[in-house]
Amino acid sequence: MQHTPRLIESTVRKAARNFPAVVLTGPRRAGKTWLLRHLFPKAGYYLFEDPDLVARFRHDPQGFLDGVKFPAILDEIQNVPEVFNFVRARVDREPRRAGRWFLSGSQEAGLMRNVTESMAGRAAILQILPMSFAESKSVSILRGGFPEVMSRPAAASMWFSSYLQTYLERDVRSITAVHDLATFRRFLGLLATRHGQLLNKSDLAAPLGMSVPGIGRWLDILEITGQILLVPPWFENLGKRLIKSPKIYIADAGLACHLLGISSAAELEKSPFLGALFEGFIAAELVKAQLNAGRRRELYYFRDQQGLEVDFIVPGVSGAVQLVEAKATATPTPGMAMPMHRLADAFRKRDGAPRQVTMSLVYRPSRSSSESHAILPGVKALPWQDFVVADSRTGRATTRRGRQLSRDRVTKR
Predict the structure, then answer these.
(1) CA triplet 142, 145, 148: central angle to 5 degrees?
(2) Distance separating alpha carbons of residues 392 and 288, to the nearest angstrom
(3) What's the confidence (pLDDT) of residue 410?
(4) How far apart are CA 380 and CA 378, in angstroms?
C-alpha cells in the first residue's frame, strides 16, 4: 500500500525529539503501525499480538528488553500491560535520551491508565484516527477514512465486514466478557440508527432486552476502542436551561454507512440518515484536525430546552469560539444560519464585551456551484471540502502560535 503522508507526522517527530517515549493510540487499522514504521524505518518492531513474542517477553521481560533494537516500536501493548513498568525503569536510567521508545495500541483507555500509572511525565501521548479529507481526497461519507478502504474502495463492503468480525473477536473479547457477540453486533447496528442523536441508554436497552448499566458498559467498550465519538454539551452557563446528554456518532462515516446497509452513492443520497451522516462526518473531521495538530479533543454542541441548537462549538485561543452548522444541502439559506447568530448574541450579552466568534455553515455543494459566500453578516457558507482543509490548516497554525505539545498531550507528574 502506497504511503500517504499523514498530518500528524510532524507532531510525532516533534514528540520523538523531546520525550523518551511516545505513546500512539487509535482505533484498529487507523494507520498507527504504518505511520511509525514509515517515520522510523530503522527502528526495531515488536508486535505483541504474536503469541510467541508475548511468551518470550513474559518468560524473561528484562532479557527481552535487553535485546530490542533502538529506537523500538512496541505494538499492541495493551496485550502486555506489565511492559510499562519495565520501560519506565529504563527511561528513568536515561531520562535525557529522547525518541527511544514508541508504544502503540488500539485500546486508548487501557493504555492511558497504564501510562498515567507508570509513565507519568515520561511520555508524549498522541492519538491517530482514520484519514481526513485534508490527507486524502478519497475520504468521503460513504467510504470513511480507513487507509485500507481508501486503497481498495471496490472491496469496501467486504473490508468493513471483516473489520467488524476482527473487532468483535479481538478487541471486544479482550476487554470484557461479552458472551453474546451476536447481540453486540446487533447493538452496533442499532447504535448506527441513533447516529447524531442525543444518547439515550434506555432507548438502546429496550430493543435488545438489556439493562441500562449493560448498555453503558458496551458504550464504554466502543469509546475505549475509538469506535464512537461522544460530543458533550457546551459547558458555559449562558442563562439558559441546557440539554445535558451527549450526542453520539459512529466515529468513521464509512463504518456507519456499512452498519446502516448503505453501499452506494445513490443509496446514500436517498437515505433518511444522510443529514446525520454528514453531521457526523464533519464532527470527525473537526476532531481529526485537533488531534493531528497535537491538541486535545475539544468539540461540543449546544441545545437548550427552548429549541435553540447549534451543531458544533469549537473553543479557540483566548476565549474565542467557532460555531459550525453542518447541513446536507446544496442550497444553504440564511435561516439555516440563524441559530448560530442567536447563540453568538447570547455569548456577547453574557460577556459584556466582544468575544471572537467565527460562524460557518458547512454544506454539500452541487457540481455546478461550490463557492464560499457570506450568507448572513458574520456567517460564511462553505463547501465542506473547503471547510475541512481550512480547518486543518488553522489547527496547525494555532499549535505553532504557542500551544505547546507538552501542555495538551503529555501526562503530568
Answers:
(1) 105
(2) 8
(3) 40
(4) 7
Amino acid residing at 46: Y
* Residues of the chain with confidence (pLDDT) below 50: 399, 401-413
Coil/strand/helix, residue 314: strand
Q: Which of 234, 229, 253 lies closest to 244 in space, CA to CA? A: 234
Asked if 183 and 134 touch (Cβ cutoff 8 Å), the reply is: no
For 338, how many CA atoms within 13 A lie in the half-sphere containing its CB? 6
Please check whether residue 89 is in contact with residue 2, taking contact to mean a CB–CB distance below 8 angstroms.
no
Distance CA 394, CA 27 (A): 25
Give the Cα separation of 284 and 113 in Å (integer): 24
| Assigned C-alpha cell, 28 | 484498529
Longest dimension (CA), the chain: 67
Contact 160, 29 (CB under 8 A): no
> Is the separation of the CB atoms in 112 and 398 below 8 Å?
no
Between CA 139 and CA 142 the distance in angstroms is 8
φ and ψ of 314, to 5 deg: -120, 115
Own/partner pairs, 367-372, CB within 8 angstroms, 24+ separation: 369/330
Residues 260-280 pLDDT 10s: 999 999 999 999 999 999 999
CA 76 to CA 188: how far, in whole Å? 24
Mapped onto helix, strand or coil, the DSSP state of residue 21 is strand
- Identify the pLDDT of residue 168: 80
Cell matching residue 290: 485537533
Task: Please tell me the distance from the alpha carbon of residue 86 to that of residue 64, in angstroms, as a whole number.
Answer: 10
- Alpha-carbon distance of 117 to 187, in angstroms, equals 33
Nine-digit cell string for 179:
458472551
Which helix (H) or strand (E) segment holds residue 363: the answer is strand 357-363
Cβ-based burial of 195 (10 A; exposed 0-12, middle 13-18, buried ≥19): buried
C-alpha cell at position 282: 464533519
What distance in Å separates the CA atoms of residue 175 and residue 110, rounded to the nearest whole number?
A: 9
Cα–Cα–Cα angle for 232, 233, 234, nearest 5°? 120
> Cell numbers of 42, please?
530503522
